[in-house]
Specification:
299 residues; alpha/beta; Rossmann fold; N-(1-d-carboxylethyl)-l-norvaline Dehydrogenase, domain 2; five-stranded parallel beta sheet; 13 helices; binds NADP nicotinamide-adenine-dinucleotide phosphate
Length: 299
């Protein structure tokens, strides 16, 4: 447990930059994989984190545009919209026996990664955090928590335990989830209704959950039905209670991307939900309409 790791971080943005900085601060060797410009900036300036939970600090990291040396783990923290392009920076041969740990939201990327890399080394993780890359190497971490569930049903359990231990030691709350499908769907079940509704209506959660209550309830019920059909438990009443407990000003990251004119992870969230519903013959009319309307709006 005391042996420091070498960890590559593909896409040192909001989530990746935060984890890279925390791991580096704890004494691990971190190699951020990024494009030439971002890699150059991070090499010169390091990563600066401003955080309610961890304080303000700056660390140095190594950088490269491609993985060229052995690592213990490679965190994948790009968005879905850039995943394919980013993966060219991680040649399967360079990854070898290392764990590949995607922290993306969504449910379909593990299969993409397992088709390309050693399937029993792909360890999908779910992260609950609010962290934003405001400039290359500058991370604003707003949430008072950083929670990570590591999964990977075929990954040797001791490898997951060791990584979770190091992630916890550097300040996050990391644990190993017993079941990958349940872990991914637990996040999806909360995220999809929140993201689709707030982005479709351009409203923060408080206004969305009162003005569009019926749609929120329908989205939650539909997502829960798809989750169950995929073999993951779901608790729609608890999901609704969580939305109601959230601050009324809360915005989804999809909504923030829409406001900033950035590409949305709409296909990875809404599209994936519709595809899963289709595979299992689950009716999801409200989800279908919202995804259609968001696509029609140019997303
Ligand atoms: N941010 C959060 O609070 C949060 C919370 C939970 C889950 N998530 C999920 O985590 C995933 C990552 O989100 P994020 O918010 O961390 O994204 P982000 O802040 O946009 O960071 C993505 C990073 O990927 C880099 N990148 C883009 N294309 C690349 C390429 N071809 N090669 C290498 N690097 C590339 C970007 O580099 P540049 O800096 O050069 O642009 C950026 O640093 C998403 O699936 C998101 O839904 C995020």
């Amino acid at each position: 447990m005391t042996h420091p790791l070498t960890v590559a971080v593909l896409g040192p943005g909001g989530t990746g930059g935060l984890l890279a900085a925390l791991l580096s601060r704890s004494g691990h060797r971190v190699i951020c994989l990024a494009g030439e410009t971002t890699a150059g900036t991070l090499r010169r300036t390091g990563i600066t984190v401003r955080s309610r939970q961890f304080g303000d600090f700056t660390v140095t990291v190594d950088t490269d545009t491609e993985l060229r040396e052995p690592v213990d783990a490679c965190l994948v923290t790009v968005k879905h919209t850039t995943l394919d392009a980013a993966l060219t920076r991680v040649p399967p041969a360079a990854l070898g026996d290392a764990l590949l740990v995607p922290l993306l939201n969504g449910i379909e990327h593990p299969a993409t990664l397992r088709a390309r890399y050693r399937p029993d080394r792909v360890a999908p993780a779910v992260i609950r955090v609010e962290s934003t890359r405001t400039a290359p190497g500058v991370i604003e971490h707003g949430s008072p928590f950083t929670e990570i569930d590591l999964a990977g049903d075929a990954v040797p359990r001791d490898r997951l335990d060791v990584l979770a231990g190091h992630l916890t030691a550097c300040g996050t709350t990391a644990r190993v989830a017993e079941n990958e499908t349940s872990a991914l769907w637990a996040k999806m079940s909360f995220l999809a209704p929140f993201a689709l509704l707030t982005t479709r209506y351009g409203l923060p959660l408080g206004a969305a959950r009162t003005r569009h209550r019926d749609e929120l309830q329908a989205l939650v019920a539909e997502t829960a039905a798809v989750s169950r059909a995929c073999g993951a438990p779901a608790d729609p009443a608890q999901a609704l209670a969580r939305y109601d407990a959230f601050p009324s000003t809360a915005k989804s990251s999809m909504q923030r991307d829409a406001e900033a004119g950035r590409p949305l992870e709409l296909d990875a969230i809404g599209g994936a939900l519709l595809r899963a519903a289709g595979r299992h013959g689950v009716a999801v009319p409200v989800t279908e309409r919202l995804v259609r309307e968001l696509r029609a709006a140019g997303h």
